[in-house]
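Below is a concrete protein record.
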Amino acid sequence: MGTPTAYAESLINPKKPAESRTTSSNPWLLAIDNALMFLAIFTIMFGVMGLMDPKSANINGTSGITAIILVSIVGGALFGSITKLMAPAKDPETGKRLGLPVWLRVILVLVGFMAWIGIYGLTAVMNGAYNPHLNGWIYIVIAVIAFVGDMYFRRKYNVVGGFMGRPMPRETK
């Protein structure tokens, strides 16, 4: 501002604030974001394994495409909820944290993670007819599509937070 004239000018003709995009930390958007990222991670992992040693990728049902999609969807939903759970709100007047106590959050995170691992383990018994193993290159293509799709999704809906994203802003109630 500097001079009194510049300050008076800023009061008379204030600059318009830069148009800010609203950010979303909607649990459904976080679930989709996380599911796409998990899909990319699992398919790139099994794709590389399939290219390096095609026999190793077919050891059990966890590397089948149905299992990968199921684990990605469940993981996306769980970690979308966990992300919201771990970003507590603060009361603007008192500054006190609102929400569940830390010890309960830790327990809920552990239970969610154990459930996700349990579902992943159960996919090992899926029948091969319903859970086909794909070629390593197909998994890599799926991984690239999922990753690019996730980046597009995050930009389109301005999703914050999530497994691989910017931190969520602290919400106030």
Observations:
- The chain is about 60% helix and 0% strand.
